[in-house]
Amino acid sequence: MAEGNPYREFTKRLKLLISKHPNLITTTLSNIFTLRLIGNKTHGDLAEIAIPEFINQYMYDYSSLHVGKDRFRAKKQEEDITVVNDVTEEEMLISIKAYGVGPLQLSTDKQARMFPLLTSQDEDVISGYNRINAILESPAFSEFEQINILPLIYDEKKEKCNILVFDAERAKRETVTIRKVTGGRGRKHPIFVLLDENDDYICEVRYGDAAANALQRGLWTHTKNAIQYFDSITSGWIDYSHNLILVKLFSHALVASKRGHTEALESVKRDIETIIQGEGL
């Protein structure tokens, strides 16, 4: 990501904050991944409100807002939160992803342009600087460097987690070969894999025209196979633990009144203030 990129500046600031106050992110991620005990997808939805609150409470020069799913439904954008640099007033849209370690979707390619463009080349292997550059600089790949995804990656068996940001600019710059791959375990459709000069995996374009399943279509990568193209905002894997009290709090809150919610909220706010003072923020 180029210097001056607002999203890049935000992730640098976030990484700096975490390096100085690791307990903040460990507590937050532990709470988020605890919510998998409630439901397999619950943690992902609630991460979309937890991360903005983390930003608002602990990043003094940024503010954030959860925009919800309705704002961009059936539109071009997929982002979940807005983040504003309160110094420069630059605003960015960010998508929060909570994925297990492994495949990671970077874009759903809603206009279904990437896969058809690569298919139209009518070759199984595409190489050469000019050809690769022409493809990656084409309108079909215009979203490649606009991937503002903050992936919260977890390894449930090891109870470890990481925040891994894909460096799309580097990936684009270092792609020297695009190879069509057919077959493989559980794969019904071909994919196009982007490779670097060492023939190492960078990312892939999955099948489909506009009628294809958007949950599968688009640009994907892999947090194990392409780890060199990720920047760890947490500076590596961190241990997390389940907070069973949080699950009990949710269950009680769902049968309590607004009066009880108000009192609980005030108590939580006081706790956050204690954390802020204790961390010297």
Walk me through this protein's architecture.
- With 281 residues, the chain is of the alpha+beta class.
- It has one domain (6-242).
- The protein has helices at residues 6-20, 22-34, 42-58, 114-120, 129-136, 168-174, 244-253, 258-279, and strands at 62-66, 81-85, 91-100, 103-107, 125-127, 149-155, 160-166, 177-181, 191-195, 201-206, 218-222, 230-232, 238-239.
- Strands 1, 2, 3, 6, 7, 12 and 13 form a 7-stranded mixed β-sheet that branches. Strands 4-11-10-9-8-5 form a 6-stranded antiparallel β-sheet.
- Helix 1 (6-20) packs across helix 2.
- The chain is elongated and about 65 Å long.
- The model is unreliable at 72-76 (pLDDT under 50).
Give a quick summary of the entry:
The protein is of the alpha+beta class and about 280 residues long. The chain is built from eight helices and 13 strands. Strands 1, 2, 3, 6, 7, 12 and 13 form a seven-stranded mixed β-sheet that branches.
Which features would summarize this protein structure in a list?
281 residues, alpha+beta, 7-stranded mixed β-sheet, 8 helices, 35% helix
Draw up the topology in text.
Layout: H1 6-20, H2 22-34, H3 42-58, E1 62-66, E2 81-85, E3 91-100, E4 103-107, H4 114-120, E5 125-127, H5 129-136, E6 149-155, E7 160-166, H6 168-174, E8 177-181, E9 191-195, E10 201-206, E11 218-222, E12 230-232, E13 238-239, H7 244-253, H8 258-279
Parallel strand pairs: 3-6
Antiparallel strand pairs: 1-2, 2-3, 4-11, 5-8, 6-7, 7-12, 7-13, 8-9, 9-10, 10-11
